[in-house]
Amino acid sequence: MVIVWLGVTLVVVAMGYIRLAPSDPVIWHRMPDVPQVKDFANGVIRVVETGPNGLEDLNAIIATTPHTELMFGSVEGGMVTYVTRSVVFGFPDYTTARQTGDTLEIYGRSRFGKSDLGVNRARVEGWIDALQAR
């Protein structure tokens, strides 16, 4: 019985850490030096020609995304980082978007684990589809 309670305690502590761990802007509010379209095991980078208002339009789309909130930056500043949490466990995924002229760069990645099972790619591509439909 002690082993069961120890296991439950470990799960609760891990869940608390996942939900409450601080998000350092030095780590998460950044873009790769040379963003280029890329898929990797726990994230994605997309570069899209949107015109000068791409970040503002994307921000409006992201504002309607469930479980997603603004973490760092601002549209006016030209770069914004959002966190989207999974429903059940609250795993955080970070998405940074930056406007450079008429180009919108989007970098989505998970914080924990080696694979996001394509979640960030699906989310970012969904946002891009909604952006291009405007």
TrEMBL record:
InterPro entries (UniProt xref): DUF1499 (IPR010865)
Pfam families (UniProt xref): DUF1499
Official protein name in the record: DUF1499 domain-containing protein
